[in-house]
Amino acid sequence: MSSLNRRHFLKTSGLLGAAAAVGSSLPAAENESKPGQTANTKFAVNVEMWWRKLPFEDRIKAASELGFPGIEFWPWRNKNIDAVADLTKSLNLDVVQFTAWGFSPGLNDPKNHKAFVEEIKASCPIAHQLDCKMMTVVGGNDQPGMTQEEMHQNIITGLKLAAPIAEDNDIMLILEPMNIRVDHKGHCLYGSAPAIRICNEVDSSHVKINWDLYHMHITEGDLCGHLKEGMEAGQIGYLQLADHPGRNEPGTGEIHYNRVLKEAHALGYDGYVGLECNPLTDEVTAAKRVAAADIW
């Protein structure tokens, strides 16, 4: 190596090292004491996954203390909904979405459609009590003897039955595709294309996709490209995120969420983004990493 090339190599290596050092540091949140108060994106903390050791209502208080404007959670049953409603209203905290229908029994089996419709009917008053505008529904795990096409068609049929209820109550049902490589082996719905097709077939203003960027990344990659397709199709009702690998907060894995959140903003998405992720070390650090992902 010539002396000129060697000098160039050393200079370049030094710059790269400095850049790496800067990249490994955690940018300061806009409000250090309340990192949940972010500049561009509204985040809703999943209080099933954050503060797991605390009683449920204390988790809600903790989310508010960090400055987050919203929360989300999983099933509403076995929770003190009166207390949750009173607490979130007193804290001026939005309940953004909860799960109205989970993995089992499967929405992808017609024998469960009557129960599905009844559960959506029962969940709507809960949503109204919480001033919540969205409820997640899940397609279900593989049904023995059914093809994927048959299961997806059964999801369409079930959602068509429930869509008028959602429309009458002005509550959006958000269908969540999963990933089967890491978390949900045997689940019947994964990836954006089939979810878009299902919602197109249902053709309701109140049936859209819970577009979990973590699941989409694992299933198909090209997050910004597929996000654009989903927005252009008019079928994205809600965004969730987690980094990969690990399903922890942004900045702990391989997804460049600054770019993804910026693209969502540019595409016109102005709703909440759900933090369905496990804090890697502690919730304060996780909140600061979330705030750092909202800087662009």
From TrEMBL:
<keyword id="KW-0413">Isomerase</keyword>
<dbReference type="InterPro" id="IPR036237">
    <property type="entry name" value="Xyl_isomerase-like_sf"/>
</dbReference>
<comment type="similarity">
    <text>Belongs to the hyi family.</text>
</comment>
<dbReference type="Pfam" id="PF01261">
    <property type="entry name" value="AP_endonuc_2"/>
</dbReference>
<dbReference type="InterPro" id="IPR026040">
    <property type="entry name" value="HyI-like"/>
</dbReference>
<dbReference type="InterPro" id="IPR013022">
    <property type="entry name" value="Xyl_isomerase-like_TIM-brl"/>
</dbReference>
<feature type="active site" description="Proton donor/acceptor">
    <location>
        <position position="276"/>
    </location>
</feature>
<dbReference type="InterPro" id="IPR050417">
    <property type="entry name" value="Sugar_Epim/Isomerase"/>
</dbReference>
<protein>
    <submittedName>
        <fullName>Hydroxypyruvate isomerase</fullName>
        <ecNumber>5.3.1.22</ecNumber>
    </submittedName>
</protein>
<feature type="active site" description="Proton donor/acceptor">
    <location>
        <position position="176"/>
    </location>
</feature>
<dbReference type="Pfam" id="PF10518">
    <property type="entry name" value="TAT_signal"/>
</dbReference>
<feature type="domain" description="Xylose isomerase-like TIM barrel">
    <location>
        <begin position="60"/>
        <end position="280"/>
    </location>
</feature>
<dbReference type="InterPro" id="IPR019546">
    <property type="entry name" value="TAT_signal_bac_arc"/>
</dbReference>
<dbReference type="InterPro" id="IPR006311">
    <property type="entry name" value="TAT_signal"/>
</dbReference>
<dbReference type="GO" id="GO:0008903">
    <property type="term" value="F:hydroxypyruvate isomerase activity"/>
</dbReference>
<keyword id="KW-0670">Pyruvate</keyword>
